[in-house]
Amino acid sequence: MRPLVYYISGHGFGHASRSIEVVNALLAAAPDLPIVIRTAAPRWLFDLTVRGPFTLEPLDTDPGVVQRDSLSLDAVETIRRADHYVRALPALAAREADGLRARDVAFVMADIPPLGLEAARLAGVPAMALGNFTWDWIFRDYTGGAAAADALGDIYRRAGRAFRLPLHGGFETIPEIHDLPFIARKARHAPADTRARLGLPDGRLALVSFGGYGVAGIDLDALSRTTGWTLLVSASVPFGPDRVPLAQASARGALYPLDEPAMYAMGLRYEDVVAAADVVVTKPGYGIISECVANDTALLYTDRGHFIEYDVLVREMPRHVRCAYLPQATLLAGNWQAALDALTDSPAPPDRLPVDGARIAADWILSQL
């Protein structure tokens, strides 16, 4: 079979985690389909979660947004990199197009780098974008970002079509839109089984999850005194003043370290831990919101700096998931008790969308092949 090439943004884990679900749905329906993934997202994420053969090639597909950590970003550097990307893109796309022709590629997916879409157009290969936002919409919101936004909007316009996910913004520059339900990872293990494997005590559980960028400055002494809760802390939060590696850390009051390599080694996945938790404490992003929707887990969120997607997520997610806001100062002070207690008694959301977007996308792609 002729291959499919999948371009995935390396900005955070959300683009990769949802696109991996599409890849898994493709491989389930067409096990012999050769899939080449081009991305700057870490290889371990694919090795641990793709269920079938694939080829991964490191490639910085887009400039993303420059994060200092999960809760703050650098808008000036973001636009500087976006402008550089736009200037370099014609040559990059021409080189990618040569590679697509040489491979005799049948189809291109892009979540949601303009590079992959422009390369497919130049090579004469059918393509489809997928995402909940477009980069032209993101960059236009920053001072000085209009030129990059205009250039990338032209590429999206020429690409012509996209799968649009819930919690979306942008897409005005893409003529043909196919709306999908959520793409999300669902747990494969029962919550009680996951808790038992991780050696967690009985009672209410909160997962502290701040993704690959992490967050520093939380008062862990104050947080450890939270009562009636086990707070499962992932590697993105330094465990103590000496930043003890979580694999070497032990429980500290309410705080328990999540040793992710050990978790994967025992057959669990991150979505299993999300499902086992009563609440996830995080900054809002499509990936973690969709996983809370899929696994019926509440979400306690804080603000994340000037990022236009944040406004859309905060406006839309109460329809789909139980959630509450925790001011960043309160988060860093470790005073989570009242917010956690209140969130456990919150009512169910009014609008529970299905989470089978990956299967729908895969079926459509295969129909085009």
List keywords for this structure.
369 residues, alpha/beta, Rossmann fold, 2 domains, 6-stranded parallel β-sheet, 15 helices, globular
Short characterization:
With 369 residues, the protein is an alpha/beta fold. It is 41% helix and 18% strand.
Kindly report the average pLDDT value: 92
Q: Any idea of the CATH topology of the largest domain?
A: Rossmann fold
Q: What is the assigned CATH homologous superfamily of the largest domain?
A: Glycogen Phosphorylase B
* Structural class category: alpha/beta
* Terminal Cα span: 10 Å
Strand order of the largest sheet: 3-2-1-6-7-8-9
In CATH, what is the class of the largest domain?
Answer: Alpha Beta
Domain tally: 2
- The helix-strand sequence is EHEHEEEHEHEHHEEHEHEEHHEHEHEHHH
Please report the number of helical segments: 15
Shape: globular
Kindly estimate the percentage of residues that lie in beta strands according to DSSP: 15-25%
Which spans have pLDDT < 50 for at least 5 consecutive residues?
Answer: 239-249
User: Main sheet?
Assistant: 7 strands, parallel
Rg value:
21 Å
Total DSSP E strands: 15
Helix content: 40-55%
CATH architecture descriptor name of the largest domain = 3-Layer(aba) Sandwich
